[in-house]
Design brief:
The chain is an alpha+beta fold. The chain has two domains: 1-72, no CATH class; 77-214, no CATH class. The chain is built from six helices and ten strands; from the N terminus they run H-E-E-H-E-E-H-E-E-E-H-E-E-H-H-E. The strands form two sheets. It has a seven-stranded mixed beta sheet with strand order 7-6-5-8-9-4-10. A hairpin with a 6-residue loop joins strand 6 and strand 7.
Length: 217
């Protein structure tokens, strides 16, 4: 679907509305009432998530079209034996043991976010280090721009088993990543997050693993 046709349809939806929406959460595009469990689109330029109804969501599902908004897919993948050793992780300069990465098409580069007491903190990635990782593990190239993220967890360097455990890596929707770090913000204590945050991460990664399709290298 072309950009013009998508916005034409959206304009007609808005124009056909004759009554205000009922109380409760509403679609941020057409103001239709939506359920608590709903879908999202990304405002690519503003890097914002928008809550939308099913009809508006379907207008922006073409990942190859040039659109201001993109629908967030519902794809969960697991990347076992991910090619991220301690040297590559340190080269990415992420100060904690978990982060998510996605390619922002408006900026034309990959960005990283990691959790902390202030919420999701953006990290400026070294391009050479990221390209090194992408070359080492081509599965990184599966990511859809703007709407999917690579969520990675490594053990803290000070843990006795950190050297033996391989990183945990999943591809998942960008909205799930923001929800994850938002919850961590409320639980985070100290520099490393504390026990509550670590327990929540264990539960979250277990639930993601349960719904993920395994993609081998």
């Amino acid at each position: 679907m072309s950009s013009a046709s998508a916005y034409d349809v959206l304009a007609r939806i808005r124009g056909n509305r004759t009554a205000p929406p009922a109380a409760g959460e509403s679609c941020e595009m057409c103001a239709e009432r939506i359920a608590d469990e709903h879908q999202h689109v990304v405002n690519v330029e503003g890097r914002q998530l928008m809550c939308v109804c099913r009809g508006c969501y379907l207008l922006f599902t073409d990942q190859h079209a040039t659109l201001r908004y993109r629908a967030v897919p519902d794809r969960y993948l697991a990347f076992p034996q991910f090619a991220l050793d301690r040297r590559r992780w340190e080269a990415l300069q992420i100060p904690v043991g978990v982060a998510f990465f996605f390619r922002n098409s408006h900026l034309g580069r990959t960005v990283a976010f990691y959790p902390g007491p202030a919420g999701a903190t953006e990290s400026e990635l070294d391009l050479e280090s990221w390209n090194d990782l992408r070359t080492a593990d081509p599965r990184v190239g599966i990511l859809a721009d703007d709407t999917e993220a690579l969520l990675v967890r490594v053990l803290a360097a000070g843990r006795h088993d950190a050297g033996a455990a391989e990183p945990v890596c999943h591809l998942l929707p960008i909205d799930a990543c923001y929800e994850f770090v938002g919850r961590l913000r409320m639980l985070w204590r100290g520099f490393d997050g504390g026990q509550q945050a670590r327990s929540y991460m264990d539960e979250f990664f277990a639930s993601v693993a349960a719904r993920s399709k395994v993609v081998t290298g």
